[in-house]
Amino acid sequence: MLVIENLQTAHFGPLDLSVSPGECVAVMGPSGAGKSLFLRAVADLDPNSGIVSLNGQERSAMSAPDWRRKVALVPAETGWWADRVGEHFPPGAPSAELLEALGLDLGIGAWAVDRLSSGERHRAALARALCGHPAALLLDEPTASLDAASTQGVEKLIGQQLAGGVPVIMVTHEATQAARLATRTLKLANGQFANRQVAAQ
Amino acid sequence: MSGYIELSYWDIALAAVFLLINGILSIALNLGLERQLAIAATRMIVQLLLVGIALKAIFAIASLWLTVLVALAMAGFAGREIWARQERRLAGVWGYGIGAGAMMAAGMIVTLVALTTQIQPDPWWSPRFALPLFGMILGNTMTGVSLGLDTLNTALYRERLAIEAQLLLGHTRWEAVMPFARRALRSGFMPIINAMAATGVVSLPGMMTGQILSGVEPTEAVRYQILIMFLIGGATGLGVLGAVLISLWRLTDQRHRLRLDRLAPAA
To answer: Is the interface score ipTM higher than 0.85?
Structure first.
């Protein structure tokens, strides 16, 4: 269970949200509403106040690196700090299974990062985050810039995580995607969750 | 030992002829450099004449407090230079304080140790020795610190996505910024490493040339120069290291976040 209480930054809040194991909550709203900033604050990447806990363990009781290994944020746009794709993964990762699920080339580890298309970057970043076996996932536009087949692969993978009991908060612009994956859709506007709709599962 | 040869104003005027030729060429070829050349040359003449008069007076008064005051003023100007040369700098007092503080601390420690244990003039703070020595050390430390800080701040800003990607995977702030810290330290150390490597082969250092021209034996001048190079190298290293580490501490926080909000808007 991922529990967020009174989460607040200069841009939004206070916000409350509880996500049960295996539940996906979609966060929608106009551009600039602070959806990405909300996810960053949950990951403790920007200064914020409030109480966030995962399975009863409070964020403030553990180091930030420990928290981020448990609660993994995959941003809409991410960076690469080494030349080769494989250098961004722990030894032996990513597994062929994970690469296949995401429709990525099995030899991608040897590729230069510059060779990746934006869609491949996006999927490789998701693979990078999943390698640490996080206990909760924060996904920012997980299928933006992906074609239909890749979108299907990513959504299937998110479904597997949900089936494994991982709580997921997902920022998306696509109402249909929210309907496919999420049990609840929240609209973030003016720094507050405007409504709480229950979508069909 | 050959004696010191005094220069007349006529000698100096004659030396300016080549610069004048450059100015005439600039006008003839429409290069547009003549104005800048004239202003720079005039500034140089006025500044050096004034500093000559000032130093003569300071040496004559020979007061500890005046010497300290002049040293602080020099460090203040150097700190301003470091601040001005950064494309992205920390907001508020940190933008000036980190560079100036690290440079001043490193420069003063090294100068004090050199004056009291190696050069040992009487009194040890004698402005004739203390001020030129501090000036040489300060000037080089200033260059190193401003290059180091500029490289660091620019790299952290440009590479923020890569740094945050590492933080999001559970790396510590030190792991995430280490490649950029290394890059910053390298550029801060580069001028002094180049100077030490090239000295005597590519160029004869100004201080040593000055001593030789004023009649000191080359072997004696060389010994002084080696001492000065060690002092400059040591102070530059300490200053760059201090400034880069304090900046890293300020641009990240205890929750291992990258705090680019603490940078002032780009100059």
So the answer is: yes
